[in-house]
Every structure is written in C-alpha cells, then in structure tokens.
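Hi, can you check this record?
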Amino acid sequence: MNLTRVLTVLIVVLVAVDAGFNIRCRQIKAEETAYMKSVFKNDTAASKLASAGDVDLQPASTLMTVKRNLESYYVEKITDTDEDKMTHEAIKYMTASFNDPYTRYLDKEEYAAVENASNGIFDGIGAVLTLDQKKIGKDETEESLVIMSVLPGSPAAKAGLKPGDAVTEIDGRSVLPFNPFRYANKLVNDARNHRGDRKEIIKKLEAEQKRVEKGKTMFESQKILNKKSEKPLTLTVKTGDKTRKVKIETAHMKLSPVTAGGSTVKVNYLGEKTGDAFDKAMESVKGSSLTLDLTDIGGGDIDAAKQIASHFIPNKILTVISLANSKEETVKVPAGKAYNGKVTVKVNGGTAGTAEILANSLRQNAKVTVEGTKTYGDPTMTMLFENYDKTGYILKAGEMKMPTKVSIAGKGATIDREVK
C-alpha cells in the first residue's frame, strides 16, 4: 500500500470517527438537557429563585453535567475517594478564584483550628495572622502574611513579635503572594525590552525560579505557624523597612476567656464562652471605676461582644453591618443592667475587628474613655461554613460599621488618650 493510499484511508477513518463522535456528543447534550430538566422541574425553591433572578442556576447545572459525564464516560472507575477529591478541589478553586484573603477553603486541620480558637485553644506561635492585601499598580495587588494580634504569654509575645509585623520567610522558605510569578514576569519583560544586562537578568530569573519552587503559599505558611512543631522555627520578620531573623518555639495554649482582678477586667478572646465569663467577672467588680482591657483581641464572635456591651449600653446599637447586594443588618445590644461607674477601655494595635467595633460603640453610646494606641483598623466580617466531613470554608461577608454607619477600615477605633 503506497503512502497516498495510507493517508487517504486515515483521513476517511478520522472523518468517520469525528462524525460518530459529534453524533454521540449531540446525544449526550440531549440526555443532559433532559436530566437537568428532571432535576429542577419539581424544585419549587430553585424555580422561584431562578424566576426572581436572585440566583443563576447555570453554574450549578454545568458542575452537575461535568460530574455526571465523568461518572458515565471516564475510562477508569471513579471511587468514593475520587468523588471526595473532586468535591474538595472544586470548593478550593471556587473560593480561591476571588483572590480574597478572607475567602478560602479549610481542610480538616484548619477547620478544627478555627473551631478551637473560638474556645480559647490555640496551637503554634500564638498569634492571630491575617493576609494583608495592598494595591501595587493599577490592576495588581500583593499580599503579606501579617500578625494581627499576639496572645498574652505566647511564644510570639516572648519573641517580641508585634501587630503589623510581616512574616516573609519560614525556615528559609519564602512566603509567596497569590501571584508568585510577578517579579519573574517583570524580569522576562525586561529581557524582551532590552532593559538591563541580559546575562544578569537570566541569573536573577534562575534565582527567582528557585525561590518560588522552594517557597510556601500564604495559606501553607499560615498553617505552619498555627500548629505545634517539634523543632523551633526561624522566621524572617519585616517591621516597616527593617528585617530581622527570629527563632521561635511553638506551643499548645489554652486561654481563659476573661481574667479579672481589682477594677480591671481583661478579655482575652471573643468566643463562645466569653459572654458568660464576662457576666461572672462583672459580679466581682467593686468600686466606682472599671478598666475594660480589649488589647490583643484579633476579632471574634459578635454575640460575645453583644453580651459584654449589655453591661454598658443595653438596648443600644452595637454595629451596622454592610452585607452583599447593598443590604444592611443592624445589630442591637440585648437588655441588661448598665454599669454606673467610670469606664476606661484599653486598646492597642492588636485590637481588631469585633473588638475595635465594641470599643468604638462603647465610646459613642456610653461616653467611656478609650486609651491606648491605634487599633488594627480591620472591621471585616467573615462567615464560617462546615462541610459534611469537618472540612469547611470561610468567606468575606461584609463590613462592621459604627452605629452612625461610619467606616473604621484603615483608621481603627477613636482614641481619647494615647498611652503606649
């Protein structure tokens, strides 16, 4: 058989196969259309949402179609383990697609850590960490892993770490931003546009490639710092323009939600047990003055803040939350017996989120004095969701504002008396 005949036969076979493939694809499309109609025809809630224009069901339809096609036509058998992996990877990439430091997937270990923190149980260096995102160009942002607050008596406190410190390396591995190739892309553009010595640019590019390959993502780095390890960690920490190395131990810590002594009540975290513990602490307070210490509280449970506020501003507004779709939620403080003495609220750079909203609301409604240093200035509200297998995801849900709807983002609580 000559080459021309072989090619002719191959073309005929390919055309036939392609025609058959297209026919089968049309059959699959028809099957999927019928399948999706059967899924949603009796779903009253879904029908109402779709008709009201509140929810676009097409993305869900696409995901279900892909899943069904994989189950029906993928050459290997899809196991329960494969199903779980597909589900979790889909959630992971959906949440990551926003490039939002407050929106992310949580594996079992990470979800347990968040749950434990609400009960005062912490592992790792003993610091509340956040991903700080800043604009560095018209359409570009860069992220840093930043310490929001330091737990009292923790390894982080003993090592001298402070709110605002950025962790740039862990054990010699770089903490990578969401786009780890930004600097590499700049070097490539410099080479293309003949900016600088080509050999020097290639040398820098090779070094940058090694740094990225060796580095850890923001979330991987956060996970390392939030668990107990056998060996001490060596961190590269940036404070302003200065960089230093810090050798730090990790530990397992359990904090009491509230500690009280004399006329001072220190809130250590805002969690599930904090409100009741504060009620009990207030029973032992005597005298005509009280110091409420809200230092080093990196956000927390808004219900705990409401219960604390009921001792000072019962029935008042704690915060107005700006939510999705231009909606707002007014959070009122429950009824209670207001403390009649003089109140001073202490804050610092580690007072963040719900804690700084609480400080500002007390100042506005009860005329208390707020003293200390500038608070963190991050009133972001997040929501935590649990999946069926104790994994979960967290998402940015809104911004807590003052009762007057004034934002404190980037500004923090109002300080009456600066005390360092």
About this structure: The radius of gyration is 28 Å. Residues 67 and 87 are 10 Å apart (CA to CA).
